[in-house]
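in:
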């Protein structure tokens, strides 16, 4: 015969009850045996605690307990099947809750995070999404985050990170040059709508950053990575300069400086006048200015050199002509 556990002291019983209530709230249904095992108590002690919860609550405005002021359980399930199902909750209902729209937005964000390689264990994220749905003031809208063109690339990189193997791919640089690269994947980062892979490039024997939409013919090899995240120090900034970079003088709104901080060389002069800052940015190629200017339309102006202005102006004219 199993040894019966000693009765709990009053202080221990209070702590047990305070832990049991949120435990039951987080579960739609749980057996007495499972809950008793979770808390390390006798099953009869667990049943006594559930019966006590069912006569607990918060009095209403009249300071008298009404039926809606008490917890309630599915008694038939409890007495006949040893299953615990809370059918009415109190106290927690008076706490601030996310609206259905807020919960839906958070759930969409969590779905987006499941695409990140560092979130390979997605069970915890799935559990959090379920809790958000249950805890909202109303049922969130059913939604799903649409797949992007980089989803398959992200999935391959995620698998390579987990397996600790090298990647091979064709990469189109900002200069329009295509090369086959072999890389130890270290980190995935996003800036606005673009995704970047940071890793040790065996061709360049250095840390390099690759934009995912410029990667083609990506394959995960069977060769183990040479460098792991703890073996090399990744630069704090996503974009790092090289001696071949070209400097471009620009004027940009002071409020937009944080958006181009990674492009500004260390020690670059910044002249401010009437909320506009004149400074320099480094680019691998003048054609790389197109995306920068497009993202800061009306906020950033290219001043010098003339070749850079011509590239941006020609790109802008080509865009206008498409609508004429």
């Amino acid at each position: 015969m199993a040894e019966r556990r000693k009765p709990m002291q009053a202080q221990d019983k209070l702590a047990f009850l305070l832990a049991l209530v949120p435990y039951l709230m987080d579960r739609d249904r749980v057996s007495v045996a499972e809950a008793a095992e979770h808390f390390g108590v006798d099953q009869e002690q667990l049943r006594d605690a559930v019966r006590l919860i069912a006569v607990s609550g918060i009095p209403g405005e009249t300071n008298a307990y009404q039926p809606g002021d008490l917890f309630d359980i599915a008694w038939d399930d409890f007495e006949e099947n040893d299953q615990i199902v809370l059918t009415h909750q109190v106290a927690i209902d008076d706490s601030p809750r996310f609206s259905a729209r807020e919960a839906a937005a958070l759930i969409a964000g969590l779905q987006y995070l499941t695409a990140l390689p560092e979130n390979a264990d997605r069970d915890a994220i799935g559990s959090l999404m379920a809790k958000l749905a249950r805890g909202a003031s109303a049922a969130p809208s059913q939604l799903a985050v649409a797949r992007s063109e980089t989803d398959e690339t992200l999935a391959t990189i995620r698998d390579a990170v987990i397996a600790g193997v090298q990647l091979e791919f064709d990469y189109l640089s900002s200069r329009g040059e295509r090369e086959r690269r072999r890389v130890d994947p270290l980190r995935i980062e996003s800036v606005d709508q673009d995704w970047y892979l940071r890793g040790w490039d065996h061709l360049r024997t250095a840390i390099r950053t690759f934009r995912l939409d410029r990667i083609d013919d990506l394959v995960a090899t069977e060769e183990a990575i040479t460098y792991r995240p703890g073996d090399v120090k990744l630069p704090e900034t996503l974009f790092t300069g090289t001696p071949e970079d070209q400097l471009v003088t620009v004027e940009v709104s002071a409020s937009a400086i944080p958006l181009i901080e990674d492009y500004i060389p260390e020690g670059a002069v910044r002249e401010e006048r009437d909320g506009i800052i004149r400074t320099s940015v480094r680019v691998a190629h003048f054609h790389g200015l197109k995306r920068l200017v497009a993202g800061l339309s009306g906020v950033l102006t290219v001043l010098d050199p003339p070749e850079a202005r011509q590239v941006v102006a020609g790109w802008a004219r080509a865009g206008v002509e498409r609508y004429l």
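note: The two ends are 89 Å apart (CA to CA).
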